[in-house]
Design brief:
The chain is of the alpha/beta class and 307 residues long. The chain is 40% helix and 19% strand. It contains twelve helices and 16 strands.
Length: 307
């Protein structure tokens, strides 16, 4: 595989931002489908899928909506990799989050590798009003812990192993890498690993170059080059600078409206396509190329047969 090929993943809607923050955040299943297809056309090899209540945009786990979105994507694009969340929302139980794997059997599933304080309350201060009652309550809470115990992790990974879903290992801090090492040493995970550094959430590691370097160096020391593939998903204004850092160090990237609503300072992104297109342009300026879905499957060690 050409080492200049890099994967762009696109997180389409997520469960962090609320509709009042941007009119461009996709909420309805048909909009999530359209946004996924646009991101793929712009160069995303993988799309990361959450669903929301179509009436008010609240993050939910609803199999009918997931199935509608996945079917809608596959009707027009049979190649793009579909990654389904098991992170769901911090308000969901582990059982709710895990249940998508046996029901949907995706190629990729996100797997959060440790618990952390989850602080979105600083975001709430920036908005004087909200369109829906649930939004402010959802954001303005200083008592949220995103629970990912060893028991929960092993439960979700057992579902993934049974269904042939590769875990996309979400790492919010250096300690989570040691959790992965424990899981690997005890045969609960197998290499090669796919690790994603999620940075910039209050309660997790930051998005500075030093933070990303710390995660990268720790992973190198614990797992060794060639035994893992890694990516960076930075929240907020650091999305593009952190993505560039990842590319320079040999990693892959995730962008999208789940993580960042802005194309540039003060300029809302009108679509996921715009965020992917900007990322692809930056990549090409560095003499790199976005991997196709087929190339991304080879990089990640996925079955070449699409679901």
């Amino acid at each position: 595989m050409d080492k200049n090929k890099r994967i762009i993943s696109c997180a389409i809607t997520g469960a962090v931002h609320v509709p009042s923050m941007s009119k461009y955040l996709p909420v309805k299943p048909e909009d999530i489908i359209e946004e996924s297809l646009g991101a793929a056309e712009a160069g995303a090899a993988s799309v990361h899928i959450h669903v929301r209540n179509p009436q008010n945009g609240e993050p939910i786990t609803n199999f009918e909506l997931f199935e509608q979105v996945i079917k809608g994507i596959r009707e027009k694009n049979k190649e793009v990799i579909i990654c389904v969340t098991t992170g769901g929302s911090v308000k969901m139980t582990v059982e709710e989050r895990a249940s998508v794997i046996p029901r949907l059997r995706p190629e990729l599933g996100s797997m959060n590798c440790g618990s952390l304080n989850w602080g979105l309350f600083e975001i709430a201060k920036k908005y004087p009003s909200f369109n829906y009652e649930w939004e402010k309550k959802f954001l303005d809470d200083k008592n949220i812990i995103f629970v990912n115990t060893f028991g929960a992790i092993e439960t979700i990974l057992s579902y993934m192993d049974k269904e042939g879903t590769k875990p996309e290992l979400e790492v919010y801090d250096a300690g989570h890498l040691y959790n992965i090492k424990y899981l690997l040493d005890n045969g609960i995970l197998r290499s090669p690993l796919y690790i994603q550094f999620v940075t910039g959430i209050l309660g997790s590691i930051g998005s500075s170059p030093y933070d990303i370097m710390q995660l990268h160096q720790t992973a190198e020391r614990l797992f060794g080059a060639g035994n893992y593939v890694w990516s960076v998903a930075a929240a907020g204004k650091s999305q593009f600078t952190s993505s560039t850092m990842s590319l320079l160090l040999g990693g892959h990237i995730r962008v999208g409206l789940e993580d960042n609503l802005y194309l540039d300072k003060g300029v809302l992104a009108k679509s996921n396509r715009e965020l992917v297109s900007k990322s692809a342009r930056i990549m090409r300026e560095l003499s790199l190329e976005p991997a196709t879905p087929s190339e991304a499957r080879e990089i990640l060690g996925l079955n070449q047969t699409m679901s």
